[in-house]
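Annotated sample (chain length 221).
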Amino acid sequence: MPALSPRSRDEVYERVAANWWLKFFGITAFIAVFFAAYFMLLRYPFFSVTLMPLTALDRFISFQPWSIGLYYSLWFYVALPPTLLRTRTELYAYGWIAAAMAVVALAIFLFWPTSIPATTGIDWASHPGFATLKRLDKSQNACPSLHVAFAVFSGVWLDRMVRTMSARAWVRILNAAWCIGIVYSTIATRQHVAVDVAAGTALALIFATIRPAVLRASTGR
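Output written by the structure step:
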């Protein structure tokens, strides 16, 4: 059974094609600027780094090497909501909201740098993909988890858009499962702890409620 009706598929194609060049360069620029600021704060913290506490949930979720695929999939997932927006006005509004969320998190990292406890008993070099990830990210700038924040923020917006396209129920379920999978992967890859995940989720839900009239018209909600 097709996920979308022919009419809805036409709408998806129209949305993706609209201002495609602005979306491509805008998303690329956003990610580049974000990472420049993120890694600067990661490598040169201005204040002492706080170690985040472990909880029962962290002990319950074991290290899962396969979850790195879900972890990396965020960078495709976050591009989906802006890709489905129609107009420049919608794109600019969405971009400003996402940027504001990132700025708030970066401000927290500036004044309250955090890190997760060192993981013992895992030979990162024996797991392809993890050695590079651990070397670059260093499991710092932990709370709130921006990996979680952007996943949840994107998931909420995708759900709103999917509901306006007459998609089958399983498309919404797939979106929710993907979002939850990314959130899960942040603990399963040992990049974050549960407190980071909770804080990132809260941050995302706060900014996901900011919906200018132009975006409400776009999503039909």
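Annotation: The mean pLDDT is 85.
Annotation: The beta strands are 50-51, 114-115.
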